[in-house]
Amino acid sequence: MPRAPRCRAVRALLRDRYRQVLPLATFVRRLGPEDRRLVRRGDPVAFRALVAQCLVCVPWDAQPPPAAPSFRQVGCLRGLQSGPPRWWWRGWGRTYLRPQRLRSPLPQVSCLKELVARVVQRLCERGARNVLAFGFALLDGARGGPPVAFTTSVRSYLPNTVTDTLRGSGAWGLLLRRVGDDVLTHLLARCALYLLVPPSCAYQVCGPPLYDLCTAAAARPTRRAGGTRTGLGLTRQAGNGGDGEAGGPRELPAKGVRRRRGGAGGRPPPAKKPRHGLEPERGTEGQAPGAHLGRAPGRSDSDPRVMTPTRAATEAKSQEGNVPRTRRPFPLVGGEGGVRSPSWRPSHPQGEPGPRAWAETKQFLYCSGSKERLRRSFLLCSLPPSLAGAQRLVETIFLGSKPRPPGVPRRMRRLPARYWRMRPLFRELLENHVRCPYGALLRAHCPLPASTTPAGSGDQESPGVGARSGERPAATPEGDAGSRRLVQLLRQHSSPWQVYGLLRACLRRLVPAGLWGSRHNERRFLRNVKKLLSLGKHGKLSPQELTWKMKVQDCAWLRGSPGARCVPAAEHRLREAVLARFLCWLMGAYVVEVLRAFFYVTETTFQKNRLFFFRKRVWSQLQSVGIRQHLERVQLRELSEADVRRLQEDRPALPTSKLRFVPKPSGLRPIVNMGDVVGAGKSHRDRKVQHLTSQVKTLFAVLNYERLRRPGLLGASVLGMDDIYRAWQAFVLPLRARGPVAPLYFVKVDVAGAYDALPQDRLAEVIANVIRPHENSYCVRQYAVVQRTARGHVRKSFKRHVSTFTDLQPYMRQFVERLQAAGSLRDAVVIEQSCSLNEAGGSLFKLFLRLVHNHVVRIGGRSYVQCQGVPQGSILSTLLCSFCYGDMENELFPGIQRDGVLLRFVDDFLLVTPHLPRAKAFLRTLVHGVPEYGCLANLQKTVVNFPVEDSGLGGAAPLQLPAHCLFPWCGLLLDTRTLEVRCDHSSYAGTSIRASLTFKQGFKPGRNMRRKLLAVLRLKCHGLFLDLQGALPRAAWGGWAPDRADIPRFHACVLQLPFNQPVGRNPSFFLRVISDTSSRCHALLRARNAGMSLGAKGASGPFPSEAAQWLCLHAFLLKLARHRVTYSCLLGALRTGRRGWSARRPFVSRLVARARLCRRLPRATLAALEAAADPALTADFKTILD
């Protein structure tokens, strides 16, 4: 038998997702006779390869194999020996019986096609998700037709190449004859089969799709010390009822399962008294933490009142930035006297607080509406200020009870004594909410200029309601829709400090002093409110941060009994959980609701992730001005009600877009979100949207296929840094090889309103030439790729592969081999989702025409059809614009790249040519405009490096730079003389680097910070900047240095670490991050210049590693020296290598101090580095705000 492929990464991935992963021969050997072999002498090569490459994966919840497989459709197995049974496998509390060895051959009754059809029909009837049944469905009245052969009620709506290959394969037919019906049916219906494809991949044949198992992997049991199992994140706890199988519901043993006494399924007798102590919890690898799992070591160990973090507070103490094993800071604890075992039941036991949610900034983004008032459906507004209302509030906050709509009868539940005593405090909270003057507080803390507030209007003074029902925002004065009015309104946003003042005033009026317990707890929560407002667009505030340093003992309302002095550990943890639940509700429900009620929160184009708070009255005026300008600039036709009804009846469903605006420094940018369908009700909206999205993705894949097959269709388009690098290198290297470079003329042109100005008729002609609807037919295969990263994370991606019948790979094995040969696939599992063998170009072109000509935009409650341009929110927009302008370049500028280069990134043109007349002609053509393609230059963004006569451009003149300069284009700086490329950091000028940085802190924020910085560094250190081919002047070394924004990014990450982590607590970790940054920079430099010697002994060579380290350390020192208080413990080590602080924390690193590097580098090299680095770096750091 041929040797099985290794595919170690694939095997490791499967072993992590299944109970057992066995070769097919091993699986069958455990069922069959000892003297029988699955592979025999003389078997076909295909059958031998199938047995060698097939893996049988047993799911965690799989039923045991047939105890007595008959290998027939009906009947029992012949030839069983008598005697005691023998074990097949054992584990996880179950023991599966193994049938005895067989004496007689294994008869086979069904043919392979019958068996596969029978399995597919059973899967469809059960509604099971199985790769084998993809593309099959049960017959219904609306979709009739003949059933699939050998089935009674199954139809095939999409080809399934894996199933078709299986039922027509001779190797699988021989396998059926060897193992029989029962075993192969069990393999196809109850197990998952994978076929290995050398050298390193596999594809799935049957079983639940692997990507579904990856999403639910947290719920499966995991191994731990002692032979028991536990769910991820849940730990075994001693309690009043013993420990079952944590991580899964209790169930009765199935047939053939034998429970062992004292195993995982046993239950000890109930304790006579409640146990107040906690057994030391164990992590996933058996490490036992301390008794109080919510606290870090330190002073708080002796003070039970202070709640401290478990992960981030201790992470910086480890040399690798790691923390102790994952623990649960507040485990689910039960009644008043003991600890409950963890359960997967959706409802929470009585007395047990529900799960706590993260407070996220996305919860209060883009809340439209002009009325500044709380929603009447808000929980506090819908409850009466009485004990009954307080009880419903307590049930909602602590017990996870969902509020019911008014008029629905509600049965009062009996509360535990702890929550029953809370009712007076929460009744006081409801009374405070009724008396709170939200309108007056809003006017006091976030006032508006007199010109904005309409005369005679006033904010609503009644509590909890907001603005009066008859109040309307002030109308924009007629004739004042110009840019000055727009800029004036944009400046009227409320600062985060003003918004914080409003929230602080509301919270102090709302929350009774008894709920805070002490001023310390109140100040801690207000500090978290301030932090929430300062987070970016993707910011989150974890429950651990909300409860950090909160004093539980100060809150008398958390006590289980009024006079208890001794607080057991279980009781203290229950109090922590109850307080955490209240704080999470207060932040995630009340604070978020106040922000949603009074402010429109959005990001901007110039501050990226930073949030701006506009009062809704101001934003309604801004939106009305923006809508008016958008209607004037874009050709829109309003739809009547009859048109809307007609569009609702059309099939397929049409997309409708919602318009929103993002502030710019001097205006508003319209953003179109295509996420809805015209006429789709709530029940069918998701299905219609998914179908339409799938069709659009197929069209996008086909256009990309034609782009790759015929690159000339795109003209000079570049779709990313890799394309720019290839085109620029192809232009620069021959030019340098010819000798001295002649003067070059640069022209940069930006098209005004590119997406909105494309003529739809001309665009249709261009796309018809691309797709050729009357000639082409495409084969589209949808598949998923599951890979395991080097750090153990599972990555899933869903892709489409387009081909024609000339290059079609019909079988999955050929397809996977082709992907591996192309270099786009390695160490992955491929799951085919569907395969359409006849996607007609005509149907795709009709879909394109409907998307363009019937694009519906919802603006202000009205529906419009866009008569010109393409929707900006679609994935097709960039590609359509590139095809259109590529056709224009092929028509108007066929020979312009002779001796030069023309690049275009969507709508930004760049021409570099040694011929001045050609450059002027190109500029003149685009400034005058090309109406056939809707192309007109925006002179405010047009730049040249040569003098231009105003008369030739109609009296207008673009920006003129010197002949030798750093020419800006699309975030790059091009040296007009040396043709070197640098990164343009001007976009960071005057802004905080924190506004462009987001990283998920998670449970290990230090580790995530290091990964984020290195990942961004890898993106910034592109080959376009690190290519050393040709002479690299030493003056350009300062432009190479690690990305200049990476050092301020390091400082921003340090400031964002949770729990106020000081650098001095773990300086070795931060020094290691700096050392890794230096080594990663030089490693990327070597990778981008493979085959080139960069350094030699004595720090010589074009770019030795010592020079890279010096540049990196010098850049860090320039930045960190401006924050001496924060980084005082790092500056000495970076300058001289002094490590006086390392007596307690020894640090061994590859980091070499700058003083040592200065002694290693030659004097000439060091002088050139200092001259090149100091001016550029200092100027960049001064423009970036902290």
Structure notes:
There is one protein chain. This protein has 1186 residues and is an alpha+beta fold. It folds into five domains: 8-217, no CATH class; 363-407 and 414-451 and 459-469 and 494-615, Topoisomerase I, Chain A, domain 4, CATH 1.10.132.70; 634-714 and 760-866, no CATH class; 724-755 and 877-972, 2-Layer Sandwich (Alpha-Beta Plaits); 988-1183, Tetracycline Repressor, domain 2 (Orthogonal Bundle), CATH 1.10.357. The chain is built from 39 helices and 30 strands. β7 (192-197) and β8 (201-206) form a beta hairpin. The longest helix has 30 residues, at 569-598. Residues 73-106, 222-352, 454-481, 1031-1036 and 1139-1150 have low confidence and may be disordered.
Mean pLDDT across the residues is: 77
Structural class: alpha+beta
Question: Unreliable segments (pLDDT under 50, ≥5 consecutive)?
Answer: 73-106, 222-352, 454-481, 1031-1036, 1139-1150
CATH topology title of the largest domain: Topoisomerase I, Chain A, domain 4
CATH class of the largest domain: Mainly Alpha
Outline, from the CA principal axes?
globular
Strand order of the largest sheet: 1-2-7-8-21-19-20
How many structural units, i.e. domains? 5
Distance between the termini: 66 Å
> What CATH architecture label of the largest domain applies?
Orthogonal Bundle
EC number: 2.7.7.49
Organism: Monodon monoceros (Narwhal)
Catalytic activity: DNA(n) + a 2'-deoxyribonucleoside 5'-triphosphate = DNA(n+1) + diphosphate
Keywords: Chromosome, Cytoplasm, DNA-binding, Magnesium, Metal-binding, Nucleotidyltransferase, Nucleus, Phosphoprotein, Ribonucleoprotein, RNA-directed DNA polymerase, Telomere, Transferase, Ubl conjugation
